[in-house]
Write a structure and sequence with these properties.
The chain is an alpha/beta fold. It has 3 domains: 99 residues, Rossmann fold; 59 residues; 177 residues, Rossmann fold (3-Layer(aba) Sandwich). The chain has 12 helices and 10 strands. Strands 6-7-5-8-9-10 form a 6-stranded mixed sheet, with helices on both faces. β1, α1 and β2 form a beta-alpha-beta unit. α4 runs antiparallel to α5 and α5 runs antiparallel to α6. The chain is globular and about 80 Å long. The protein binds guanosine-5'-triphosphate (GTP) and magnesium ion. Magnesium ion (MG) binds next to α7. Magnesium ion binds next to α7.
């Protein structure tokens, strides 16, 4: 496979830089040739500063084979246009990159619809911006002019597409509601797995349900929701038996995800949010500072989604990769007040304890 050589422009911050690199590299064709850092992305002309833009232009001229520049923040149409004009290669912003990753991963009808919705949300402000660009060029978009007409038609068309997709998504939601209703009738408790992308949700889901859903170290492996039941044996009040639990695996989180993208995925996320218990998975094998940032990002997103905090329970994953003495240190630094369970889906460490907790939470306390 021929790799596409790209330049990444991101912030001079270890966490952000690492995450941006991972995001870019989760598109298999990309090879990062050079990283430029920039403190601010709010310069009017290019987003990045003019000096930085010229530095990149010089680098691209000398390196020759660079095909794309990826800027790790939001850029306006005009800024992308100006950068492309200056440097002579195509420019992509963070949101475009995330949308592209979503496209490569979406397998279900629902995931595809959600991405189309996010795509339209991405396009809409740009159509207006393009109108301004047009009005500054020869083809004037003056009242009643051709430019304005084209922009209006485009805008109306996007709006139409948007309501069409929303309707279709609503249909899938209605189906979900019926499904939920049936669930309530069976009174099976629902546990959902949420957390950062790559925190190990699907791996745990597969282990508990004997499924073989795709897992990988790439970001955004899972883009649609799957619900399965599994059984836990118990010895409740001296009565040995088995209880069924429904478990929901869903799309992972990432930092600086624009609200419209979270909104686009809301209908799948909603299913996980009506659960009786929400397990927030945190990858314990990362740097403690990264764990802290990711944990607080997750809490922030869950808050935006109006999740009932009392249903949240933190699970540290991948503890086979760390010294178990680190667990207390992590818990301390996250300042979590309630219990935390540490697990490994690879070695089964803590899985029994997790199942016991699920039993206790679902069948004794409630
Ligand atoms: N060593 C180790 N690796 C794990 C464990 N759990 C998951 N992984 C690895 O972590 C990576 C991410 O796991 P996934 O289960 O795909 O993560 P996810 O949270 O579903 O990620 P998204 O679908 O992108 O949101 C994979 O490479 C897994 O093999 C574990 O307990 N120990
Ligand atoms: Mg997954």
């Amino acid at each position: 496979m021929k790799l596409t050589k790209v330049i990444l422009v991101t912030y001079p911050d270890d966490f952000i830089l690492n995450e941006a690199k991972q995001l870019v590299l989760s598109i298999p064709e990309y090879e990062i040739v050079k990283v430029f850092t920039q403190k601010y992305f709010n310069h009017a002309k290019y987003g990045i500063g003019s000096g930085k833009a010229e530095e990149i232009e010089k680098f691209v001229k000398e390196a020759k084979e660079i095909e794309e520049i990826i800027v790790d923040d939001h850029l306006k149409s005009k800024q992308i246009y100006n950068l492309e004009k200056l440097i002579g290669v195509s420019v992509k912003d963070r949101e475009r990159l995330i949308l592209d990753i979503f496209y490569t991963r979406a397998t279900t009808v629902e995931a595809k619809l959600q991405i189309q919705l996010a795509e339209i949300e991405y396009e809409m402000p740009r159509v207006r911006e393009n109108a301004k660009l047009l009005s500054n060029s020869k083809e004037r978009a003056g009242k009643g002019g051709m430019g304005e007409y084209i922009v209006d038609v485009h805008f109306r068309d996007l709006k139409r597409q948007m309501s069409f997709i929303k309707e279709k998504l609503n249909d899938t939601k209605i189906k979900r509601n019926i499904y939920q209703h049936q669930r309530q009738k069976t009174r099976m408790p629902v546990v959902s797995l949420v957390g950062y992308t790559s925190s190990g949700k699907t791996t745990l889901f597969n282990l508990l349900t004997n499924e073989s859903k795709e897992t990988s170290s790439k970001l955004f492996t899972t883009l649609s929701t799957t619900t399965r039941s599994f059984k836990i044996s118990h010895n409740n009040k001296n009565r040995i038996g088995e209880e069924g639990i429904l478990i929901v695996d869903t799309v992972g989180f990432i930092s600086r995800l624009p609200t419209y993208m979270i909104d686009a995925f809301k209908s799948t996320l909603e299913e996980s949010l009506v659960a009786d218990l929400i397990l927030l998975l945190i990858d314990s094998s990362e740097e403690i500072e990264d764990i802290r940032i990711k944990y607080s990002n997750c809490l922030q997103i869950l808050e935006e989604l109006n999740v009932d905090k009392s249903k949240l329970f933190t699970v540290l994953t991948k503890v086979d990769k760390i010294d178990t003495r680190m667990i207390n240190e992590i818990v301390g630094s996250l300042r979590i007040s309630n219990d935390v369970i540490a697990i490994s889906s690879k070695t089964d460490y803590g899985i029994h304890k997790l199942k016991t907790l699920l039993m206790k939470k679902q069948f004794i306390e409630t």
